[in-house]
Amino acid sequence: RYDAGKDGFIDLMELKLMMEKLGAPQTHLGLKNMIKEVDEDLDSKLSFREFLLIFRKAAAGELQEDSGLHALARLSEIDVSTEGVKGAKSFFEAKVQAIHDASRFEEEIKAEQEEKKKQAEELKQRKAAFKELQSTFKQ
Questions:
Q1: Cα separation of 101 and 35, whole Å?
Q2: Is the same domain home to 55 and 108?
Q3: For labelling alongside 3, which of 61, 86, 121, 125 has CA 20 to 30 A away?
Q4: In sequence order, what are the residues at sequence separation of 6 or more whose Cβ sits closer than 8 angstroms to the Cβ of residue 33?
């Protein structure tokens, strides 16, 4: 819902907007610290897995009471045991679809390249045939 870029990640600006919509706005530094606390792959954005990690940490009592992540977990009220499964399913289905789309795109590119090679070979053969014909007229 908060992934405005529809790229499967929540970046700093999307997190900022999300926190404002939830009624718990954060400072720029606070937002960076929120991401840093659960950013396993160090890409400075939240993946679905990292987003769920917020709620796991909250359930385990590992978040500071005054942290932005604690506020996010409290305001969002997501049950990881149910939503995590559904979310993971749709996340992986989207990944599989993206891979499928990418491979289909690659197949189209390969087909175009093969067609260009075929056309280049035909042109080469026509030129060779023309030169052969031309040589018969020169004699």
A1: 30
A2: no
A3: 61
A4: 67, 68
In a domain, 2, yes or no: no
Cα separation, 128 vs 110, whole angstroms: 27
For residues 22 and 64, membership in a common domain is answered with yes
So what's the pLDDT on residue 107?
Answer: 78
Residues 67 and 89 in one domain: no
* Per-residue pLDDT tens digits for 74-127: 666 544 454 455 555 666 666 667 667 666 777 788 888 999 999 999 999 999
Contact 2, 76 (CB under 8 A): no
Rg (CA), the chain: 28
pLDDT digits (tens, 9 = 90+) for 34-47: 888 888 888 888 88
In the chain, the number of structural domains is 2
**Cα–Cα dist 46/119, whole Å:** 47
Side chain identity, residue 40:
E
